Structure formats: structure tokens, C-alpha cells
């Protein structure tokens, strides 16, 4: 399979720069992937598509204010660090800029000395392992000095840090938001639960590799990034109860899909578990647990578009995206939603 087969035309004007307010007033394209029917709705209409035993699975990861701007001690040049993954208590895997100036042994100061970083070593893929030095609690220092790591296609400054978090974010550790969940409000969640539908939290800490286009010409040659996940025993029981009771599993976001499909057996049963996953889902890979998918519109030639294609088919996915462009839906992280429904 060719990576270029997942390209599509997208005017730059359709890349959302700011989030919709209120959150659940985003538009929502509904694609019934059995009947091939398309509807144009809003996210607050979601409860209309839920049947009594259906369950929503949401990723409760919380985005760290992971972008830090500082000064290299030896030269005074401005530098940028982006935290990707915690190695241990005070050591992190990071992206650094400019990379050629931040070699092992270099030190960086942030916030007039409130935080310092020592570059310890480079990884084979070009990241840096960094040790942080600070007084107090690291998360508090980071919250004061760090900025939200918005994707590079968003050029507007984010006025409210909380707008790049889901309302149910709980477990800190992500370098990017699970953006399908940004459309939920507490009021919409209450409405869904009041109707008898369960909302089950799981965790997958999102890495920036999620948003990177595939660089290999053949998509089977692509090596996926690794992300940490956790599904509790209680969550697994509630997820499996949905299928036993004849309900459908709605994965909220591709990160929820990747977590469920990492753990699911051939019957679709999801056991509890935690660890690192590098699962790559593309056409030909059977989804065993996920029935319906709530997601945003994704980058051309991205693994996320390939995941959508695994659920509904490549030609169908590209046809839906063509319709979304024609109807001027808003794309990517702060964009509109898409509901893929198997009824």
C-alpha cells in the first residue's frame, strides 16, 4: 500500500486556528458506514445516536504544558525544549531547538533560574535525554513556566490553557491532546449518563508522533512511535459488559482505539493492562473491539487517517473527507468532529 494513496486536497483556510465555543457547538459529520449515509449535525446531537447499552470510551490523559523557552548558559542563545516522555523522576526525553547547539553537556536556564536543564545524551532518533534541576514540585514549576504544545499548524496564541484539555482530563503525561474529546462539555456528559449510557475512562499518553505524516513511500514500512497506556480492571469490566449486553463500543478518538485494539483478543474482549504500544492500524488490520468512532478530521498521509480507513475503507474515508472539504468543515485539532456509526 502506498502512503500517497492517503493524500487529499485541503485548503489552508479550513485548518482551525481557534476552538469552537461552546465546545459542543462544533459541527459533526455523521457517516453511517453500513448504509453509506451522511448527515450534517452538531456535537450536542451526539446523544441521539446512542442506544441504551452503548458505551463511550474516553482517554483521560492530561496534556502537560510541555513547551519550555529558555537560554543556553554558555552562549545566551534562546532555545526551546519540548517534553515528550518521562524517563524517571527528573529525566525526560525531549525535542530541542536548535539541536546543533544543544549537545550533551550543555545546560539551559528557564524562568530566571527557577528551572535548569542538563543535556545528558542524544537518542538514536535525535531527541535529547534531559535532567531537570529545580526547587519544589516539578509539575508546579512546569505549570508556571511551560506553554501548551499546540501543533505546528496552529498559529494563533491560546488564551486559555484549559481549552487544550478535555473536561475529563485527569492523568498528566501527554505532549498533545486527545482532540476528539475536546468537544465534550460537562453538561453533555451528564446528559449522556442520565440517559443510561456509561462513559468509561482509560489512559493513553499522547506523543507527538501521532501527528507526524508517514515519510515512507510504502506505509507498511512505517515504524510507529510508542505510547504508554493503562486500562483498569473496572474499566475493562464495564467495556466488556457493553458487548455482552448488546451495546456498541464508541471509541472517543484514535488514542482510545489504539489502546483497546492493543489489548483486545479475537473475540473483542478487552482485559485490563498497561504498558507501551506501537500498534499501527491501517486497512487490512481488523478492529476487534471498536464499533463506532468519534474523531476529528486528520492530516493527509497520517497514521490517523489510515486508522479511520481500517474501520470504513480507504475510498470511503477519502470520500467523506472530500464531502467535509466541500461543506467547509473545520479540520485538525481545534476542528469539527466526525462520527463513524455502524448502524
What does this protein structure show overall?
The structure is a single chain. The protein is of the alpha/beta class. The protein has 2 domains: 3-63 and 160-341, QueA-like (3-Layer(aba) Sandwich); 67-145, QueA-like (Thrombin, subunit H), CATH 2.40.10. The protein is 18% helix and 28% strand. It has helices spanning 138-145, 186-194, 233-244, 254-263, 303-312, 314-326, and strands spanning 27-32, 37-42, 55-59, 61-63, 67-72, 78-86, 91-97, 107-110, 115-122, 128-134, 171-174, 198-204, 227-231, 249-252, 273-277, 292-296, 337-341. The strands form 3 sheets. A 9-stranded mixed sheet has the order 2-1-17-16-14-3-12-13-15. A hairpin with a 5-residue loop joins strand 9 (115-122) and strand 10 (128-134). The radius of gyration is 20 Å and the shape is globular.
Layout of secondary structure:
Layout: E1 27-32, E2 37-42, E3 55-59, E4 61-63, E5 67-72, E6 78-86, E7 91-97, E8 107-110, E9 115-122, E10 128-134, H1 138-145, E11 171-174, H2 186-194, E12 198-204, E13 227-231, H3 233-244, E14 249-252, H4 254-263, E15 273-277, E16 292-296, H5 303-312, H6 314-326, E17 337-341
Parallel strand pairs: 1-17, 3-12, 3-14, 4-11, 14-16
Antiparallel strand pairs: 1-2, 5-6, 5-8, 6-7, 7-10, 8-9, 9-10, 12-13, 13-15, 16-17
